[in-house]
Amino acid sequence: MSSKTDPSARTMTLVVNGDERELPQGLTVAGLLEALELVPGTVVVERNREIVPREAHAEVTLAEGDQLELVHFVGGG
Amino acid sequence: MSERTQTETPLAGTDRPLEMGGREFTSRLILGTGKYRDNETMMAALRASGTEMVTVAVRRVDLDRSSDEAILNHLDPDEFFLLANTAGCYTADEAIRYARLARAAGFNEWIKLEVIGDEATLLPDVQATLEAAKVLCDEGFKVMAYTNDDLISALRLEDAGCVSVMPLASPIGSGLGLINPFYIREIKSRLSVPVIVDAGVGTASDACLTMEQGVDGLLMNTAVAVADDPIAMADAMRLATRAGRLAWLAGRMPRREVAVPSSPTTGMLD
Questions:
Q1: Is B112 one of the annotated active-site residues of the chain?
Q2: Tens digits of per-residue pLDDT, A16-66?
Q3: Residue A75 and residue B56: Cβ atoms within 8 Å?
Q4: Is B213 at the interface with chain A, CB within 8 A?
Q5: What gap in Å lies between CA B247 and CA B262, rounded to an integer?
Q6: Could you tell me where the beta strands, DSSP code E, fall in B86-134?
Q7: Which residues of A touch B144 (CB under 8 A)?
Q8: Which site from A24, B163, B169, B201 is most exposed, i.e. has the minimal number of CB atoms within 10 Å?
């Protein structure tokens, strides 16, 4: 991920699925999924306990300290 | 397998489709997708079972890519109707949160609501389930509620607007079969929405016996997934579910505690 980040750009700390991650400031939800190499159509994103609808992924800009949950469907009964 | 499924439909047309939440299902068997040894076996088992609806769970994406958990890499949502669950939730708020996340995945507004009350038995917290059911039904979810084999709870869940009430046969993953047929029959006789028995079926005879109580369908996972041959067990469950359903529709003979000969008692030789 660091290779994609301009070293001069400022970063922010996000908590993604319980773990802190340093990511570029100004990142959108869509940008986050791209940075994590996730297929956007299969992941549901919750930001600070609120679901970010898929159609808003490109517009919602993340901020320092945001708590993100990225979930998907797995096998279950 | 598929050829066999197509040709072997005894008394086709005897049964009506299962109508639930504005949809029709030909198969009365719903299968879970957990605990299979691999995805290939799971897909073959799902197809052998004849199911049209499968349950899935909502979990965090594994960002370290240490496992290939994304079920939609293997399961085509056009082939099987996805029923997301709230498995693992212990409070109403938690279950509501999971249900909303599941709906945001964009497939449908159906949810298998389960709120567990106790870790050892995995028995449902019926009060919390009812609380969550009310909220989710108001939000337009089609709620299939996992519950105890208790008539009053079942009635309350129906009143809350659930599209199906799903009492257990016995505890989740126990394979103990149908513990209280009387309570299941009582629930079925009093509810208008479909009654799907969820959890506890261990083998084909359990499935058949449960369907013979007149319920509308079955939901199971472990019995198929952990069988030595899950594909054969899925086929057995398909047959047993159908056999039990047909036997119930056919109407069983009365039980008598005396023998009654089947052959004429007259015309015997001197």
A1: yes
A2: 999 999 999 999 999 999 999 988 788 999 999 999 999 999 999 999 999
A3: yes
A4: no
A5: 20
A6: 110-113
A7: none
A8: A24
